[in-house]
């Protein structure tokens, strides 16, 4: 599997992991490098979660199209889709938190770092 974490993108901010703590709270990883064992494990689990979401979506699309789908099948598909959506949103949040902060521009259209050097 391709690992999305690299040492160049590593920051000092904590990484949101794709699994909750035993009591349901978010888990974070503090590391100075992006290539450690837990980071790779998290990358692999994120890939599995996204692939499972795509599989569940493919299977669940057939349920509402079948007019004789029993209530329990529709409910089960809805529950699995909700779980997959929660996983995908956690992956998106985690990856979004690791994006570099874009440079800001002042009113003159000059990057803030450039305007302080003049």
Summing up helix and strand content along with how strands pair, one would put the structural category as mainly alpha
Mean pLDDT: 83
> pLDDT under 50 segments (min length 5)?
6-11
Number of helices: 4
For the largest beta-sheet, the strand count, sense and barrel status come to: 2 strands, antiparallel
Overview of this protein structure:
Helices cover 50% and strands 8% of the residues. It is mostly helical. The protein has a two-stranded antiparallel ribbon with strand order 1-2. Strand 1 and strand 2 (26-29) form a beta hairpin. The radius of gyration is 20 Å and the shape is extended. The termini are far apart.
Task: Write the SSE topology.
Blueprint: E1 15-20, E2 26-29, H1 37-60, H2 62-65, H3 71-97, H4 112-115
Antiparallel strand pairs: 1-2
Helix pairs in contact: 1-3
Name the features.
single chain, 118 residues, mainly alpha, two-stranded antiparallel ribbon, 4 helices
Short description:
The chain is mainly alpha-helical and 118 residues long. 50% of the residues lie in helices and 8% in strands.
